């Protein structure tokens, strides 16, 4: 996470102190702490502090700059956020590629993401001071992305990238594969479960081996998707034992 | 983008109308329009409308539900957002994998992302009604993600995924989820299966509601990973009916 410490979030000419506070909060949730303000209309302001909701350390540490150049002083990479296409502007990058590039360069020095005014965005002059331009892909029919929300999206991508990057391997990733809380069931444990299930279904009159109707393939298809754990197989077989031994005791409320 | 139209954003017990408005705005920028509110503390409210900033059509179309089950009625997939790890909760997914799964399933029916109260999050009971749980990876030192910001992150990921996945080609496949051979079971069909399973286990003496020992959460965790189809629910309930009515006829070879 050292790399995130080298990332500056620059807000150029923000109008509303609430958005400055929301940006600080958005940053801090993602482990990004360096906010720089270029000519904010109202700052400091109690509305900013209220919206920061505990991220007021980020606000307090935020220098107020007189120009974008001042805010970008010492950086080795600056990327502009813009809702508009610009003729002859810097090269466009996707959000994800931008996050990746920012973190890569943050290994070597300070980098900046530059956000414009809520209404006007960034001036062409400001955009030209950045090496790349990023557009968050909003719905063309309603592209009114809140400033704090835009900062949230970028900082989220930075953190995602920082977490998924480098050594980590798959550890936290691979989401769809459920981390085992019990060891995975072995092939033979699962097969014994299927045999048990089949026996119980036959005894209950639900399954006729002479007219199987693809019942077992259907159940295998179902449980085959699960990656059963050993504990789960034990529970399922426990249920089978119980229902097999005990006739329904009370039909009335069923 | 048709798939985004099948996505429901469910806010369960939101306290602050401003966050409802921010969520609506966040959704609309990403082309997601279906907001559902479960027992909002204050709604409708002028603060919500103000923060929605032009996304008031999303607010106006948002139904107010009395329970999470009502909000999830008819869905084939529900995913809970949670800042906390839960013992024996649903299987975890990364944000990105969740977005991918949501869009994949949205080809086939309605899907829901469920967000909890600003302070308390989702109740365990609510979480249990979802098939997966997603944690937005915040900085452990400050994880105070604003509700609207969390909605923004998820909707952003949905849109990113929808844009990048354009041609798709794989439909409902994508390896882990088996293509449907029968329509996916709806939320209420699956809930009826759980209720049926619970009844049968109680009658069989396997489950003691007074000493539940987390049996139902374990079974929900198991079947939650499967993406049950309607035919499969019917088979499972058929088995339950059969074993419930018919005592084991022959113990000897077991």
Automatic annotation (TrEMBL), chains A, B:
Its EC number is 2.1.1.200. This is tRNA (cytidine/uridine-2'-O-)-methyltransferase TrmJ. One of its GO terms (biological process) is methylation. It comes from the Bacteria. Pfam families: SpoU_methylase (PF00588). Gene3D superfamilies: 1.10.8.590, 3.40.1280.10. Homodimer. It is found in: Cytoplasm. The lineage of its organism: Bacteria, Pseudomonadati, Pseudomonadota, Betaproteobacteria, Rhodocyclales. It comes from Dentiradicibacter hellwigii. It is an enzyme of class 2 (transferase). Belongs to the class IV-like SAM-binding methyltransferase superfamily. RNA methyltransferase TrmH family. GO terms for molecular function: methyltransferase activity. It catalyses: uridine(32) in tRNA + S-adenosyl-L-methionine = 2'-O-methyluridine(32) in tRNA + S-adenosyl-L-homocysteine + H(+); cytidine(32) in tRNA + S-adenosyl-L-methionine = 2'-O-methylcytidine(32) in tRNA + S-adenosyl-L-homocysteine + H(+). PANTHER family: TRNA (CYTIDINE_URIDINE-2'-O-)-METHYLTRANSFERASE TRMJ, TRNA/RRNA METHYLTRANSFERASE. Residues 7-156 form the tRNA/rRNA methyltransferase SpoU type domain.
């Amino acid at each position: 996470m050292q790399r995130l410490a080298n990332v500056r979030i620059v807000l150029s000419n923000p109008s509303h102190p609430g958005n400055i506070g929301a940006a600080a909060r958005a940053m801090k949730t993602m482990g990004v702490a360096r906010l720089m303000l270029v000519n904010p209309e109202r700052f400091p302001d109690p509305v900013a502090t209220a919206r920061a909701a505990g991220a007021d350390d980020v606000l307090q540490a935020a220098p107020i700059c007189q120009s974008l150049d001042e805010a970008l002083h010492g950086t080795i990479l600056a990327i502009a956020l813009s809702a508009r296409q610009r003729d002859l502007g810097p090269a466009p990058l996707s959000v994800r590629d931008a996050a990746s590039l920012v973190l890569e360069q943050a290994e070597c020095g300070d980098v900046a993401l530059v956000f414009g005014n809520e209404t006007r965005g960034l001036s062409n002059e400001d955009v030209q001071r950045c090496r790349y331009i990023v557009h968050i892909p909003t719905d063309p029919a309603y592209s009114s992305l809140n400033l704090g929300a835009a900062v949230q999206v970028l900082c989220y991508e930075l953190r995602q990238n920082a977490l998924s990057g480098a050594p980590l391997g798959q550890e936290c990733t691979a989401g769809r594969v459920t981390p085992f809380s019990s060891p995975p069931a072995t092939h033979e444990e699962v097969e014994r479960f299927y045999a048990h299930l089949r026996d119980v279904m036959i005894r209950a009159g639900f399954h006729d081996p002479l007219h199987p109707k693809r019942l077992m393939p259907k159940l295998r298809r179902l449980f085959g998707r699960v990656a059963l754990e050993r504990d789960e197989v034990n529970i399922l077989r426990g249920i089978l034992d119980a229902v097999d031994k005990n006739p329904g005791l009370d039909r009335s409320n069923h």
